[in-house]
Write a structure and sequence with these properties.
The complex is a heterodimer of chains A (522) and B (355).
Chain A: H1 2-11, H2 16-35, H3 42-67, H4 75-91, H5 96-120, H6 125-143, E1 148-149, H7 153-160, E2 163-164, H8 166-175, E3 181-182, H9 184-202, H10 204-214, H11 216-221, H12 226-252, E4 254-255, H13 263-273, H14 285-305, H15 311-340, H16 343-370, H17 395-403, E5 408-414, E6 419-425, E7 430-434, E8 439-443, H18 446-459, E9 479-487, E10 490-497, H19 505-517
Helix pairs in contact in A: 2-14, 3-9, 3-12, 3-13, 3-14, 4-5, 4-6, 4-12, 5-6, 5-12, 9-10, 10-12, 13-14, 13-15, 14-15, 18-19
Chain B: H1 2-15, H2 20-36, E1 43-46, E2 49-52, H3 53-60, H4 62-76, H5 84-99, H6 121-145, H7 150-168, E3 174-175, H8 179-186, E4 188-189, E5 191-192, H9 193-210, H10 214-223, H11 225-230, H12 235-261, E6 263-264, H13 273-283, H14 295-314, H15 322-337, H16 339-354
Antiparallel strand pairs in B: 1-2, 3-6, 4-5
Classes of the chains: A alpha+beta (522), B mainly alpha (355).
Chain lengths: 522, 355
């Protein structure tokens, strides 16, 4: 029995990293399932996909790049360029479908340009794509300095359509809870994933990519079309980045050049955690899916633990990457080491290695422990931009206004003009705007307010666990938001920042509908 | 005839010098400034201290210069260190929290007293540099002993480093008002004080690498680590040293950067600066695949990057649009260095000779 098991493992050795990631994802989710009641909600499980659909789309393209022994740092640049270009064109009144096709084409062209630099001019992928990222991010500011809101019917439909899951819907009806759903970007993400798996493992293109990643020289000598394949790989990744940008755009329903900071690192981290070696030639597209899931579950767990701030995500991801890379490196070393060195030397080297590694780990831990900052605290909104001192959210004032009968209080800070505005909406349709100096008042129909509240509560799940604080120091031109909504005896205030990749989709939609009724249409 | 041969020889020795290309690039940028920006070269003398756009280039370039010095050694061993920005943030956070620990109590405590500090200056600087050194050591161990690809190994700290920095400062921006510390980045002694720091680090590094065998070891490891292993050079130790030193330099740069803006901000200190540092080294002529290096050329490379930035500001390009301009500069530089393009030019030359 045991020998059969070990035989099975050694036969399928190449699947070990992927299996480890998958097991990790299941165990992490299982732990959350046991400890947190909120995580048992099927909608929370589906939100893992909803919140990371754009990472998944981009990570599939990145897997191909990394398999071919390259790297693409430009994804976040292409993503933000996509958001800005589509927002600007939609504002100019273009047909939304034409916009979608155009931005996809832009992504592919950028990918192809970077690819040709890498393939024909032999520029290191790292440098070429870095220049690509700078170029794309910089171009955003030639188009617009400020964030552009997207208010388009097609984009709204694409972003907010709910796709119900057949089995789960009946279950939810039985329990009387709202039916869990996924969104269109999730479906697109899965289609991209399936196409990616097909391309990687069942086509000539995929085999060539693996061959190039294994040894480019040999691939060339075998007569494989190396240049053409590499060009295709980078073009494909440009396409995936643009597609990811579109789905990110649906998410935040606006576009700006400083959105999605550090997105490329999230993507690369998920590919690495998914078991693809950065040395190229080893890995599976399906593994990337589990890598993205690990990322999503980490985020969700940290959110459910509640006392831990969101930057713990970064640390956990860093540690996971280290573990995966470290284990793979040790495995690879052992393969070479066993043959080349005699047993004693191997043992000595391992001792040295363990010692050095342990010493470094202890030192780093000491360095962290020296500063007694290891206390979980929620971010209370301090931090500022170079443009202005960012003031704290006026939470007390908002709470007082709600107590006095308002239904929605929306406090907005920073932004390009460094504002500090409080909008208060009353059930009778009055909207008060207080920008610190003047107070102005406008009016909408009371039924509109009622509809607004209903939409926010029912469609966007304001009072569910999914809507949570995602505050971090905002980018210099972005807004920081604090929204508090009181409806049917419930009351909840949540903070967030424009363009954060972890902003819950429902929050973005809520902002969009609230902004739509505000006096200046903002 | 002999004179002419001598002259061509001398010309050759100049053009083939490592400093030639970055210096020419720097002069070209300055020429652009001279032609298009009036008053770019005026230098004011206020109370015996010098001010002006040129001085600003030197001063604002000091952070990248410091990073470039450390990065040169790492790139010369055939590696790369992506974590310098994060290490800067960590060092800045440690320094900030030791001077103004109010963030740990989760309160924003606006110190206005310029003589207030929680710990003496030497403890602040020592602790920050020690932590940076440890970060460098960590990278070095991963690369040299765990044999992890440099880009991947340092990516780990790049991702986790900012999280660690935020952990240290409790996620808050820490105000620094302590005047002696502010002198590091804002002090002026005829020239900006940070320039002396750069000059000192450059001098010490140059002495260590060029007056001892370390520089040669680094180059030999970068050119061919296997043959250096067989000729008795301990490749792992050389690499470990290079990464540790790079972390140390990043620590100094972090101190200069946070003292310059009087705040230590875990999110923004040294954001994306690793890219500037790497490009400075590339402009300085050190190949990304390792081998021969020149510290001075890297520092000039850093100044080229800074001069481009400064000139773009001067002609009114938005600071956020700047990356687009920088990317074009990068593309031109890499094209000039690219074998393919050089081959093309040489090919044209050869054909002409035949005719």
């Amino acid at each position: 029995m045991l020998s059969r098991a070990s035989n099975f493992i050694s036969k399928n050795r190449r699947f070990i990293p992927q299996a480890a990631t998958a097991v990790l994802a299941f165990v992490a989710y299982g732990m959350g399932f046991i400890y947190f009641e909120g995580m048992r909600n099927p909608q929370v499980f589906l939100n893992l996909f909803r919140n990371t659909s754009f990472i998944l789309i981009s990570a599939v393209g990145m897997t191909f790049v990394i398999l071919s022994k390259g790297i693409d740092l430009s994804v976040s640049g292409v993503v933000v360029l996509t958001t800005v270009v589509s927002a600007a064109l939609l504002r100019a009144g273009w047909n939304p479908w034409a916009v979608i096709l155009l931005v996809l084409a832009i992504g592919m062209i950028l990918g192809a340009i970077m690819g040709s630099f890498i393939v024909y001019l032999k520029v290191q992928p790292f440098i070429a794509t870095l220049a690509g990222m700078w170029f794309a991010r910089g171009m955003c500011f030639f188009i617009s300095d400020n964030a552009i809101n997207i208010d388009n019917r097609v984009f709204r439909i694409l972003g907010q359509t709910k796709i119900l899951i057949p089995g789960l819907k009946e279950l939810a009806d039985l329990q009387g809870t709202p039916a869990p759903y996924i969104s269109i970007p999730v479906v697109v993400g899965f289609i991209v994933l399936l196409i990616g798996i097909y391309l990687a493992h069942y086509t000539r293109f995929g085999r060539t990519v693996y061959a190039i990643g294994g040894d480019e020289q040999s691939a060339r000598l075998m007569g494989l079309p190396v240049n053409r394949t590499l060009m295709l790989v980078y073009t494909l990744n440009g396409f995936c980045s643009a597609l990811a940008g579109l789905s990110f755009c649906l998410f935040v329903s606006s576009g700006h050049g400083l959105y999605a900071p550090g997105f490329e690192m999230d993507v690369i981290a998920s590919v690495v955690i998914g078991g693809t070696l950065l040395t190229g030639g080893t890995g599976y597209v399906a593994g990337t899916f589990f890598g993205v899931m690990v990322l999503a579950i980490t985020q969700a767990l940290i959110q459910f633990i509640g006392t831990l701030s969101s930057w713990w995500t970064k640390i956990v991801i860093g540690v996971l990457m280290l573990v995966f890379i470290g284990v793979q490196a040790v495995l690879a070393n052992r393969k070479i080491g066993d043959k080349a060195l005699d047993a004693r030397a191997v043992r000595r080297r391992r001792q040295k290695l363990a010692f050095g590694f342990g010493a470094a780990a202890v030192l780093v831990l000491l360095a962290i422990a020296v500063v007694p900052g290891l206390r979980g605290n929620s971010y209370n909104g301090q931090g500022e931009t170079t443009a202005c001192e960012l003031e704290p959210f006026r939470k007390d004032e908002a709470a007082r206004l709600i107590a006095e009968g308002a239904v929605i209080a929306y406090h907005r800070l920073a932004g390009p003009a460094c504002i500090n505005e409080m909008y208060v909406i009353y059930p009778d349709g009055r909207i008060q705007k207080d920008d610190g100096i003047n107070t102005t008042e406008t009016k909408i129909a009371p039924t509109e307010v009622e509809n607004l509240l209903k939409t926010i509560t029912e469609d966007y799940g304001w009072y569910t666990n999914e809507i949570r604080d995602t505050y971090h120091v905002p980018c210099r031109q972005c807004f920081a938001h604090y929204v508090i909504v009181a409806y049917e005896g419930q009351e909840k205030g949540v903070t967030a920042v424009d363009g954060g990749v972890n902003m819950p989709p429902g929050y973005g939609f809520t902002l969009a509908v609230i902004r739509a009724v505000l006096p200046d249409g903002q | 005839m002999k004179q002419l041969a001598d002259r061509t020889l001398r010309w050759r020795s100049i053009t083939e010098s490592r400093l030639f290309f970055p210096t020419v690039a720097f002069l070209l940028v300055l020429l652009f400034d001279f032609l298009f920006i009036p008053g770019f070269f005026t230098i004011e003398n206020r109370d015996g201290n010098l001010y002006g756009s040129l001085i600003d280039i030197l001063r604002n370039g000091s952070t990248v210069s410091l990073l470039a010095i450390g990065m040169t050694l790492v790139i010369a061993t055939g590696g790369v260190d992506l974590s310098v920005g994060a290490v800067m943030a960590i060092a800045a956070s440690v320094a900030g929290i030791l001077m103004n620990p109010s963030a740990l109590r989760n309160e924003v405590f606006f110190v206005t007293d310029p003589t207030y500090t929680f710990q003496p200056l030497w403890v602040v600087i020592g602790a920050a540099l020690l932590v940076a050194l440890i970060c460098g050591l960590w990278n070095g161990v991963l690369v040299a002993y765990m044999k992890i690809q440099p880009m991947v190994a340092t990516l780990v700290l790049m991702t986790a480093g900012r999280g660690i920095a935020q952990l240290i400062t409790n996620g808050l921006r820490v105000q620094i008002t302590y005047r002696p510390f502010a002198y590091i980045g804002q002090g002026w002694f005829i020239l900006p004080f940070s320039l002396y720091i750069v000059a000192f680090v450059l001098l010490v590094t140059w002495l260590l690498t060029r007056k001892t065998a370390i520089g040669m070891f680094i180059e030999s490891v970068g050119i061919n680590f296997r043959s250096s292993y067989f000729s008795g050079i301990q490749e792992s130790k050389v690499k470990l040293m290079a990464y540790t030193f790079c972390g140390f330099c990043a620590g100094i740069a972090g101190l200069v950067a946070c003292s310059n803006v009087k705040t230590s901000d875990a999110n923004n200190t040294g954001l994306f600066i690793e890219l500037d540092a790497i490009l400075a080294v590339v402009i300085g002529g050190t190949s990304m695949s390792g081998g021969r290096f020149s510290l001075l050329a890297s520092v000039i490379g850093a100044l080229v990057m800074q001069a481009v930035t400064q000139s773009m500001y001067a002609i009114g390009v938005q600071s956020y649009a700047l990356p687009a301009v920088k990317s074009v500069v990068v593309i031109i530089v890499i094209l000039l260095f690219s074998e393919q393009v050089r081959g093309l030019f040489l090919g044209i030359g050869a054909k002409k000779k035949e005719v």
